Amino acid sequence: MDNSPLQHMAIVMDGNGRWAKNQGVERLEGHRKGAEVALEIVKHAGKKEIPYLTLYTFSSENWRRPEEEVQGLMHILYEKLLKEAHALVENGVKLQTIGNTEKLPAHVQQALADVKNSTSHCTKLTLTLALSYGARDEIIRATKKLIEEVKGGNLSVDKIDEVRFASFLDTASLPDPDVIIRTSGENRLSNFLLWQSSYAEIFFLKMFWPDFRPTDLDNVLAQFVARERRFGRIEADKEV
After folding, report:
1. Which of 51, 111, 144, 224 is surrounded by the fewest CB atoms within 10 Å?
2. Is residue 4 over pLDDT 60?
3. Is residue 86 helix, strand or coil?
């Protein structure tokens, strides 16, 4: 059994819109509540000494949503970046992003750059926001960069292995996730960290993201500790 501590937790924060519908409020109010919960969970993850936390914040497919909702989501993101930057610093949280962030509005890109800069010295927890992110898009972009390296004579095809390929992914600076949580009751990853999730322990929770609480994170941690992670190996005294 692998007894190594949890290094990286990733969360698909799903169900904001359905939560809002159940509450009888506009969808964007669900997203606002979800953003508040996200900050609460970031703080709690730091207290639990989880070094890396990745939040699926806006997928590459989310651009297909109605323009009004997309603009509202971008405004909430911008608003929270401006408002909560100090809280990240106070809690020792370093911010970074993965995804095709060049597609984000210019003012959001600038706000992200400012918060990344102001939190760059923080070392307690690395918070990664997956923005305009899709795993297939990430893998294609990584493949293109790898091809350019080969064409430029900087890399031999014989030297390409899993480690080298992973170094071209957006997550090159991150360990693979140990745990992936998805709320809302949907049992799929929805194009999230497909390469990196090969040996992740996955938890599908039947609750909407705005209802997620620190105690729910604690319950996942307790289940994670109880799981046996062999990574394809077997123990010497056991057979499969």
Report:
1. 144
2. no
3. helix
Is residue 170 domain-resident?
no
Q: For the chain, give the mean pLDDT.
A: 94
Q: How many structural domains does the chain have?
A: 1
Does residue 216 surpass a pLDDT of 50? Answer: yes
User: Which CATH number characterizes residue 216's domain?
Assistant: 3.40.1180.10
Burial of 187 (0-12, 13-18, 19+ CB in 10 A): exposed
Q: Are 46 and 93 in contact (CB under 8 A)?
A: yes
Q: Is 90 helix (H, G, I), strand (E, B) or coil?
A: helix
Catalytic residues: 14, 62
**HEC sequence for 104-172:** CCHHHHHHHHHHHHHHCCCCCEEEEEEEEECHHHHHHHHHHHHHHHHHCCCCCHHHCCHHHHHCCCCCC
Residue type, 113: A
Residues 22 and 95: beta-carbon distance below 8 Å: no
Q: Any bridge partners for residue 203, and if so which?
A: 181
The CA-based angle 23-24-25, given to 5 degrees, is 95
pLDDT for 134 beyond 70: yes
Say if residue 177's pLDDT is above 70. Answer: yes
Give the residue numbers spanning the domain of 203: 8-134+176-226
pLDDT, residue 52, reads 98
Going by pLDDT thresholds of 50, 70 and 90, the confidence category of residue 227 is: confident
Q: In what order do the strands lie in the sheet with 125-133?
A: 93-98, 125-133, 52-59, 8-12, 179-182, 201-204
- Give 4 or 160, the one with higher predicted confidence: 160
